[in-house]
């Protein structure tokens, strides 16, 4: 039996603009998905999933009978879970050159599902790592990231960027620009607080909305470029340890994302609550439309303020996690 874990992430800077070739800086956070795998003596997969936002379910599939699951959670969720797990196991078998093998798999995650915190990427990254190790192999974090990206790309029909999978596999703060991904060195401690409105935005629709705006209005194209400038300045501020400037740039980044129409009342309310509670900076994270904000909190006040903010379902501390995927003893 082998357990591996991998972190979720927030976007410190650059979501949406990254779609148009600008850089982005996602950061791994101390919220993890843990995947335990144990080889079976048939070729079926049995998955038991216990996510923060689900009551939990167990499905078994594959093998000769290939029966479909009969579970009491929304079918698309189960289908997505099966797609990610199937993909992770396929990648693991390929990595160690094994043709067929079944597993009992347990997924436990404290990353809210579908909230833009990279929960599916964390499950895929941890799943590949655990299955490879269970079969006696080992991959470095970059190789896990590459294979996890293949899985996300397949399941999300070509819509995935490398940000989530790379960040989850290598940990820390990373810089992503197209296919070029690297970890940023010497990044200071980043005391993140996440506020979650309990909802989720439709990433495909939000990305399409920005594309239309950018085609029709020069201001939107300029805004995307300005986000790129903020990312470059933010990266420099991070590397000289100037977290006050990082916070200021997060505020600018949120304003520009609002101009592109991807914020929401709940997100704006949480961002303002964080700022009024003396956060160094606050912005939405991910596609927007609903989901999460991230604030840089130098006191306890932001966390407490968010917990009492109307529209905030839950708030939690989630500092930068310098560990990427790792095996759990
Ligand atoms: C979604 O989490 C982030 C976006 O930039 C889309 C993407 O990069 O694939 C909006």
What does this structure look like?
It catalyses: (R)-mevalonate + ATP = (R)-5-phosphomevalonate + ADP + H(+). It is found in: Cytoplasm. Belongs to the GHMP kinase family. Mevalonate kinase subfamily. The protein has helices spanning 75-96, 119-134, 141-155, 163-170, 203-216, 218-239, 243-259, 265-276, 301-307; strands at 2-13, 25-39, 44-51, 57-62, 103-109, 174-177, 180-183, 192-196, 281-284, 292-296, 314-317, 326-328. The chain has a 6-stranded mixed beta sheet. It contains 9 helices and 12 strands. Helix 3 runs antiparallel to helix 4 (163-170) and helix 8 (265-276) runs antiparallel to helix 9 (301-307). A hairpin with a 2-residue loop joins strand 6 and strand 7. The chain binds (R)-mevalonate. (R)-mevalonate (MEV) binds next to helix 5.
How would you summarize this macromolecular structure in one to three sentences?
Its main location: cytoplasm. By secondary structure, the chain is an alpha+beta fold.
List the helices and strands and how they pair.
Layout: E1 2-13, E2 25-39, E3 44-51, E4 57-62, H1 75-96, E5 103-109, H2 119-134, H3 141-155, H4 163-170, E6 174-177, E7 180-183, E8 192-196, H5 203-216, H6 218-239, H7 243-259, H8 265-276, E9 281-284, E10 292-296, H9 301-307, E11 314-317, E12 326-328
Parallel strand pairs: 3-5
Antiparallel strand pairs: 1-2, 1-12, 2-5, 3-4, 6-7, 8-10, 8-11, 9-10
Bound molecules: (R)-mevalonate.
